[in-house]
Amino acid sequence: MDVSLYLAAAALLVVLIVFVLKVRRKTQEADQEQRRDVVRAAGPPPQAAEERGAGMPRRRRNMAAVMANRRPQREAVEHEEEDVDEEEQEQNFQPTARVGAKKQKKLEEKQAKKAQREVRKRVRSLL
């Protein structure tokens, strides 16, 4: 009777160990799946198909600022033949969009070079 009791206890322990291992494996798989779901949710959003025809340019986010800067430039080109005073005012024109210090310096240098070219052109036309 003692041997049969030991065998029954051993079988019961084996069944209990197998059951615990299976439950543990399922919980680990569920945890890994949950982690994958969290990583997918936290990752970048899926890219939607672009709604443009073939050969069409991409939509620009800053198009309004670009257009705001182009309008004064077009007006300046149309009114080139006006007085020198108006040209000076246009040279002092500041774009409506924010401009960094580096770009501002570059724009100022560009305006200075343009003014020098105009002076040279006038000198040549007088000679």
Description:
- By secondary structure, the chain is mainly alpha-helical.
- The protein folds into 2 domains: 1-41; 63-126, no CATH class.
- The protein is 72% helix and 0% strand.
- The longest helix has 41 residues, at 2-42.
- The protein starts with a helix and ends with a helix.
- Keywords: Membrane, Transmembrane, Transmembrane helix.
- It comes from Seriola lalandi dorsalis.
- The chain crosses the membrane at residues 6-23.
- Residues 78-90 have a biased composition (Acidic residues).
Topology:
Layout: H1 2-42, H2 63-78, H3 84-91, H4 101-126
Report the principal-axis shape: rod-shaped
What's the main sheet like? none
Radius of gyration: 38 Å
Secondary-structure class? mainly alpha
The overall pLDDT average reads 77
Distance between the termini: 130 Å
How do the SSEs run, as a string of H and E? HHHH
Count of DSSP E strands?
Answer: 0
Q: Which stretches are poorly predicted, pLDDT < 50 over at least 5 residues?
A: none
Helix fraction, binned, reads over 70%
Query: Treating each run of at least 4 consecutive H or I residues as one helix, how many helices?
Result: 4
Query: Which range does the strand content fall in?
Result: under 5%
What count of structural domains? 2
Q: Multimeric state of these chains? A: single chain
